[in-house]
Amino acid sequence: MTARTTAATRLTIGFIPLADAAALIVAADRGFAAEEGLELDLVREVSWSNVRDKLNIGLFDAAHLLAPLAIASSLGIGHVKVPLTVPFNLALNGNAITVSPTLWTALSTAAEGDLADPAVSAGALARVVAARKARGLPPLTLGMTFPFSNHNYQLRFWMAAGGVVPDDDVQLVVLPPPYMAESLGNGHVDGFCVGAPWNSTAVDLGIGHILHFGAEIVGRAAEKVLAVRRCWADERPDVLARLVRALDRAACFVADPANHEEAAALLAAPARLDIAPDTIRRTLDGHLRLASDGRMRTSDRYLVVGRLGASRPDPAQAAWAYAQMVRWGQTPLSPELLAAATGVFRPELYEAAVGGAPRLPAGEPADDIGAFAGPAFDPADIAAHLAAWPIRRS
Amino acid sequence: MNGGPGRAAASHIEFLAALRQDWTSTQIASIGNGREALSSAPADAALKILVIDKDPIRRAILDAGLREAGFVNVILLGETAGLLNHIYRIDPDVILIDLENPSRDVLEQMFQVSRVVRRPIAMFVDQSDRETTRAAVEAGVSAYIVDGLRQGRVKDILELCISRFNAVARLQDELDRAKSALEERKAIDRAKGILMQVKGLSEEQAYALLRKTAMNEKRKIAEVAQAVITASELLK
């Protein structure tokens, strides 16, 4: 009892108001952190740049971070190099590609097959792009949230598989998620790839059609991670293990459909996501309205928190993210950089904290990635991955 | 006890509010004025500095500060729709942006080599001076510079901005505290009124009761007053 009466260890953790911060919010607000003697002070931020910088300079002990950004920061790509450690994966998947009704109609007309198939929709996009070029129209503009994000990589992977050159045939622009729907409505962008709940927001406003869930492009993509500075992880292994355990229990809570209503209510709070619980509930259920005509799509892979081995950081996922950075010219290919990238994800820290590795159910992609096109991904052979794609910048 | 402090708080708020509305350029220039003021016109006075800030007052304060320091080429932007296009049109050497602005992520795109980007931009990070970076983030401002620009001069600009940001924050804090003091005063007045009516006390007795209860319960008088108001509304 004496251990519990001493003051809890207080940790300051930055987050962006997105549904994939669920495990962090539930850990803080439903007692899982307190059970580990932790008090989590969650600080809501408005940009990934802020989260990264405040983590880097030590204003945050830990952060909810884009998985590719944790890698970019560790490699010093595009910014100051600060090695990070990822002991916990907050979510797999959760993004969606949404297009304007005009682009939706154009894609439907151009589609040779079922538009729900990303190979068909990518081919349709290539024809729409070619037709616009032939008529002298400006290229389509597509929004994503950050240069080092799955939103960027999934959009590029998808369109390039259909023959569209992302850096020449369309314009990719960074847009803060809260501005996505507005930009689609006023025609600044023709579509975007963003996380929950912003696709649903555009659908509810009647200005967007959800074309694909991110999981239809890549079956298992490490989306958001819990990141700490590597030196912090080395100095406070006990605190880190307690944090991982608290997050793991919170993620398991979120994974149970019986808890979705309560989790949605916790996430909806003004100091957290500050949006309608019902919108969050649909996200957790993987049950999304695709368009204003009421069509729905359900997938238990839409956003994966605490299920399917999602919480264990998987170095193969880090290798895939690094491969995308190389493919699109953000960083060179080298064995040293690959090793540094995969070394950011630390499954052994996760396993030591929770006491074992999760058993993946049958049917999970054999290469841990499950992309809709191309050969199986081999994390040890990035060159082969790149060679499979004629469209690339490296 | 007749609302003296309340009146003082009210007039303080009016004063600050008036200040925010009607600051003259001289008054604005004097905010945060101090050691960062430069003694002579900077050698690179023509650097084109873009200030992106949604707060019009802070924007004006930064503008005045930079101009006073001798920078003649300062451009202010409050609107962030189509930000990248604005930046290409303006083509600045230095960009300052407030950290409350979600559009900060848009600037990250400019580090990337791509067809959309004309001039490569880097974030201002002087590795040898983490304190400045930290002070900037804590003050709520971030700086981006055209790649290759000498960082020493930009550091002066950034430090000036940090000082002005902090000055505005102090002013805002003062305003918030004056507002909350006024709210507390109002709650105490209402609670006194309730006690006078319900318990037949004089104003002094009502206040003494609030104060004694607060002392016994180790709470603020305003909290006890709020409890009295809540209870009275429940019992209506």
Distance N to C terminus of chain B: 27 Å
- What is the assigned CATH homologous superfamily of the largest domain in chain A? Periplasmic binding protein-like II
Q: What fraction of residues of chain B sit in β-strands?
A: 5-15%
Q: Strand fraction band of chain A?
A: 15-25%
- The Cα radius of gyration of chain B reads 25 Å
Total of DSSP H or I helical runs spanning 4+ residues of chain A = 20
- Shape estimate of chain B: elongated
Q: What are the segments of chain B in which pLDDT stays under 50 over at least 5 consecutive residues? A: 1-10, 32-39
What would your notes on this structure say?
The complex is a heterodimer of chains A (394) and B (236). Chain A is built from 20 helices and 13 strands. Chain A is of the alpha/beta class. Chain A has 2 domains: 2-92 and 222-273 and 304-368, 3-Layer(aba) Sandwich (D-Maltodextrin-Binding Protein, domain 2); 95-220 and 288-298, 3-Layer(aba) Sandwich (D-Maltodextrin-Binding Protein, domain 2). In chain A, the strands form 3 sheets. A 6-stranded mixed β-sheet of chain A has the order 2-1-3-10-4-13, sandwiched between helices. The mean pLDDT of chain A is 95. By secondary structure, chain B is α/β, with parallel strands linked by helices. Chain B has 2 domains: 10-173, Rossmann fold, CATH 3.40.50; 181-234, Winged helix-like DNA-binding domain superfamily/Winged helix DNA-binding domain (Arc Repressor Mutant, subunit A), CATH 1.10.10. In chain B, helix 7 packs across helix 9 (221-234) and helix 8 crosses helix 9 (221-234). Chain B has a 5-stranded mixed β-sheet. Chains A and B meet through helix 4, strand 7 and helix 10 of A and helix 5 and helix 6 of B.
